Amino acid sequence: MQDELLKIFDESGKHIGVAPRSEVHKKGLWHETFHCWLLSVENKQASIYFQIRSHHKKDYPNLFDITAAGHLLFTETVEDGLREVKEELGIEVKMDDVISLGIIKNSIILETIIDHELSHVFLLKSDKPFTNFNLQKEEVSGIVKADFNHFYQFAHGLRDTILVEGFQITEADEKIPIQKSVDKNQFVSHENNYLIDVVELINKQLKGY
After folding, report:
1. Cα dihedral angle (87, 64, 113, 90), rounded to 10 degrees?
2. Phi first, then psi: what are they for 57, rounded to 5°?
3. What pLDDT digit, counting tens, does each position of 15-43 carry?
4. How far is CA 59 from CA 63, 122, 155, 165, in A?
């Protein structure tokens, strides 16, 4: 598979060139990503959704993560990132449907990868549960949701676990229900500042700021 080309930036967000994705992650170069968080609100009760990354994924397999996310290629605009919601979750979304939460710096540093992201973060909010998922098996193996207030506390380190419920698709295309408590070891290791920024911005949207 051809190595994807990404725009690269300095830490202040100034565009400085283009580089292959493998080099970007090896050298820790800043690059653009698209993140979309799904949130449903029923009877003043908000639920936030997470994807389960497929075990086929090279990076962070089988972990819970942002509902839909991906890299922006050097030829793409931020609006092009909406394809991630369609490709990964099977949900058709237009720019008018989402709320921009801004650009948030997000770094993940492991032995095998230095991932410095300038993440364009969006919120897709609904007054009913999201149910019509058609998952891209190579990328996503399941979807779960959690009480947003519990995730808010979880992101701030005020609780060690949260209860998630949803489903996972097996290799044999069986849909297996999930309901369990999970801790941060079962999530992609986004830095705390990223998660805190996200939950604070979503909380402001819920309060009608």
Report:
1. 0
2. -70, 140
3. 999 999 999 999 999 999 999 999 999 98
4. 10, 22, 22, 23
Identify the CA nearest to 154 among candidates 68, 92, 74, 64.
64
Token pair belonging to 78:
């931020």
Encoded amino acid at 18, one letter: V
Here the tokens at position 95 are 């720019």
DSSP state of 94: -
Looking at residue 160, the DSSP 8-state letter turns out to be: S
| 11 vs 95: CA distance, rounded Å | 27
| Pick from 132, 131, 165, 133: nearest CA to 146 | 165
* H helical segments located in 48-113: 83-89
Identify residue 101 by its one-letter amino acid code: L
In the chain, the number of structural domains is 1
Domain extent for 90:
5-206
CATH number for position 138? 3.90.79.10
Residue 29 structure tokens? 């170069």
Q: pTM of the entire structure?
A: 0.95
Dist. CA 147–CA 139, nearest whole Å = 24
Q: Measuring CA to CA, how many Å separate 135 from each of 51, 60, 73, 83, 158? A: 10, 18, 22, 13, 32
pLDDT tens track for 128-152:
999 999 999 999 999 999 999 999 9
